[in-house]
Structures are given as structure tokens and as C-alpha cells.
Design a protein that fits this description.
With about 120 residues, this protein is mainly β. The protein contains no helices and 11 strands.
Length: about 120
Amino acid sequence: EVQLQASGGGLVQAGGSLRLSCATSGFNFDDYNIDWFRQAPGKEREGVSCIRRPAGNIYYSDSVKGRFAMSSDAAKNTVYLQMNSLKPEDTAVYYCNTLYGMDYWGKGTQVTVSS
């Protein structure tokens, strides 16, 4: 069974940092793309960052480029999203996702950035 579980969210002041984790299981971690998305209240879901297999290239949306860093630990089947210089507009529920025959979504983690 494919599972993804995001964690690490919380409340932080603007300018602060958080590190999100997405623990995965049920598929070959090194073979499948994993994406980070976020959704703020009243807004559409937005792609934030992704890792593309097999090369492992990582991409970012313009809104987070230079502030967020995605990484991958194959030994733990976990991807991370290091979020620095957080802004109030980064406030959202953050989800991780993989496409393994169908879309699988982890339970999101709330990130709240206060001004």
C-alpha cells in the first residue's frame, strides 16, 4: 500500500524557518517522482517543488525559489522541504504527492507564518 505522510509544520514568524518531512512507503522510492504542493484557504493548490527521477533533478516554483530547498534520503524513503525566509504568503497546508499508477496524497501539514 502506497503511503505518504507529511510532517513538520507549525507556527513561525516571518523570516523564520521550518523543515517539512514526507515519509513514504509502498513503492520504490528511487524510481518515482515526488512533489510538494500547498494550498492556502480560498486558493488553488500550487506546486512548490518536485524531484524528477531517475536523474534526481529538483525544481521549484518561482514563488519559493531561493528560499526553499528540497532533498531526498533514500535510506529513509523520505523527502524534505527546508523552508527559509518564510513569508506570511507561505501560509498553507503542505502536501506531498507521488504518481504511482494513480495520484497518492499524504495527509497535509499546516504551516502558518505570522507577520
